[in-house]
Amino acid sequence: MKPKISIIVPVYNVETHLSKCIDSILAQTFTDFELILINDGSPDNCGVICDEYAQRDARVKAIHKENGGVSSARNSGIEMAQGEYIGFIDSDDDIHPDMYNCLIEYALKYTADMIVCPFQVIDEVRNQISITSIWDQAHCVVDNKIIENHIIPAILMRNYYSLLSCYNKLYKRSCFENIANRFNPNMHFGEDARLNLTLLTQINKLVFTDRPLYNYYIRKENSLSQKFRENMFDYIQDNKNFGIYLCEKYKLDDYMNHILQDYISAATNYMQSVVHSPLSLQKKHKILSNIMNDRDFQKHIAYYECPSVYYKFLKRICVNKNEKLFVQFEKTKTRVQSYLEKVKAQ
To answer: Sheet holding 169-172: strands in order across?
Structure first.
């Protein structure tokens, strides 16, 4: 007999936290599920841990594959999943014992395509705990008209962005029947956001619960492992194009300027990060020059509504396509900020 829910956990280099994650899933009050652990070529002891749990509990399946990234691992899990509903958990997080009992209850009661809960952010670096907001109405049932007229516009305005993560949700399996509705293995940033936004344009019913049932951890090793991405501008361009597509699809002309302003803001912020990256000066100049000479970037930066005088200078430098001055200007700003902070601390 097939399980009601398939829970998919991509696993890579998390042996310190993996057992806690798996234990929280096996401790669920709802028991009719299969747990699919996708060992994505992890170099540590994760593969052994996955096999040990699979031997102990018949609901656990341990799958070992070559490293292909989190999207590839999730897609492998989708291919194997037998459940009527699918959930995703990150292997360094854990969940409330009632999470899937709560989500499946609403899924069946309202015949929903997607069920969403807030998640609790446990910041171990700052020693803080907070709860994400997902929608104004804490518990409600939403049809595709509300999604079209309220939720998608809100997301385009960068509100309720936690709607776009995949781990605080339960999905009807049919959401993934179209092969296009999978995680893009070529995207290494924001891949879950893109998929969820795509699904929001297709589903008929969405249910929110106000219970924070997922524990998302911010740890020191997470912040240390953040990599500088040389191709981030490609993602920024892609997100802008998708935002424009949504504005055109739903006739959201009033939101178009916000999409373009957000695009230039993200691009200039990325350009600043290029300056402070470990890349060689020659490589920095090349990346900045490529961005500044991009026709689309030049077209839209001319209308950028600068949030400060500093950004007005950056805008002028970008319009003039002077990557060397950009580097000098950004480094000077950083040195001045550092000096002022030292003076203030005295």
So the answer is: 60-65, 33-40, 5-11, 85-88, 169-172, 114-116, 205-208, 140-143
**What is the rounded distance in angstroms from the CA atom of residue 332 to the CA atom of residue 329?**
5
Residues 235, 187: contact at Cβ < 8 Å?
yes
Q: What is the pLDDT along the chain (346 residues), one digit of tens a residue?
A: 899 999 999 999 999 999 999 999 999 999 999 999 999 999 999 999 999 999 999 999 999 999 999 999 999 999 999 999 999 999 999 999 999 999 999 999 999 999 999 999 999 999 999 998 777 666 789 999 999 998 898 888 876 667 889 999 999 999 999 888 899 888 877 888 889 999 999 999 999 999 999 999 998 765 434 567 888 999 999 999 999 999 999 999 999 999 999 999 999 999 999 999 999 999 999 999 999 999 999 999 999 999 999 999 999 999 999 999 999 999 999 898 888 888 777 7
Q: What is the token pair recorded at 100?
A: 């899937």
Considering the chain, tell me which residue range(s) the CATH 3.90.550.10 domain(s) occupy. 5-224
Backbone angles phi, psi at 191, to 5 degrees: -65, -35
Provide the β-strand partners of residue 37.
9, 62
Class of domain 5-224: alpha beta
pTM of the full structure: 0.86
Contact at 8 Å (CB) between 40 and 67? yes
State how beta strands 114-116 and 169-172 pair. antiparallel
